[in-house]
Amino acid sequence: MTRFDAATPAERRKLFVDAITAHRRRASPYLTIEVDEADLGDDAGPDPELGVPWVQFADGVVNLDCTDAELERLKSLLAEFPAFKIDELTRPEDAEGTNARVSAKADPNRIAQFLDGVLRRVFELPEDVTAWVVEI
To answer: Measuring CA to CA, how many Å separate 54 from each of 36, 82, 114, 129?
Structure first.
């Protein structure tokens, strides 16, 4: 894999497919996707004080932290991905929000579509958000 960022929906999905493929070939523990901090404006997307949104994928599971509102949007997104389901929700007492683990037993293309949906619809990021594969 030679590129690690993308800023359009089609490029992000291709990047995510390539990252999932590299992750599986390398048998790495997980892959991590973050958004570019510069894309977090005051008027759109998640609260910058909560940190940079991230998503991890490993062993057919998508892992993300989300606020209550983001969790509701995640549930709405899952309605479009019937093969995906929430396996576990964890609400640590010492942290704001919820950690969601979503089973994603699908091909890399479908997983990539879901990951892009998480960035755009769950985290409410702009269409041209730059996503970085920061760890494979």
So the answer is: 10, 23, 14, 13
